[in-house]
Predict the structure of NNMT/PNMT/TEMT family protein.
Amino acid sequence: MVNVFDIEVQARPDVFKQKEQENSVLQEKEEIEKNETIYDRTSFMTTFSTDAYLEDFYTKVEDPAMQMVLKFLPLIACRIGSIDRLLDFGAGPTIHVAATFRDYAKELHLADYLPQNREELIAWKENRSRFDWSTPLKMILTQEGSAWEQLQEMITRTRNKVHGIYHCDCFQNPSVDCPSHLHGTFDVIVTIFCVEYCCNSYEEYKNAIKNIAGQIKSGGHFIMGGILEETWCSFGGRKFTCLYITKEMMLEALKV
Ligand SMILES: C[S@@+](CC[C@H](N)C(=O)[O-])C[C@H]1O[C@@H](n2cnc3c(N)ncnc32)[C@H](O)[C@@H]1O
């Protein structure tokens, strides 16, 4: 039995409704719509641009879904309190989840399917990433009621607590390639904007959630953020498929 927190977010087309007021974003939308190709998981390896993803979602953080995640996560982390071990499953090239839990978890573990994203995570851990995380991290500090002067300390503390960066695959069991003694020992698993991009059917979605949640220790917590009722999303000027999921389908899948 595990506890479940879900972060309900708006479908990404709302991003466009908001951004359409800005000329630069209008241009981007036109570019995307001109490119009718919708990429799926078979081309993830070659089409997912780590730099474009970070640039699009984590420089200014204008996307309402991302803003919502950064708003809710610090509150959820605070409610859960002290834990031994956290895993961000499908972290992509991102460290904001780890940063949110830096003061609560003894160990932070990150996992992603794509080598280019794991390489970025390793670069960040080794302090050689060129990406500037200031904007999202300051948003987290604001939510916590912490001073922005603590930014550098936040980064150092998070970096020091990242114990492992692994390959993961939600279609495998075990779903994460961490040392075997860690399997099933995570007090908290967070997975955000991940499962619905990987799955082509509801059966796959349910199975993926089962495989991910299987790594949580008994009595632990599962925090899942995802896109509801959408069939594609875009970043880096490309469209990617997204499995259409309703809130009811998501809650049903969490019972498996
Ligand atoms: C949209 S990104 C989300 C990244 C990050 N969690 C965030 O909130 O920004 C989706 C992630 O799913 C990962 N992914 C793709 N196929 C996967 C699979 N079979 N198992 C687990 N993760 C997968 C990709 O590598 C990618 O980093």
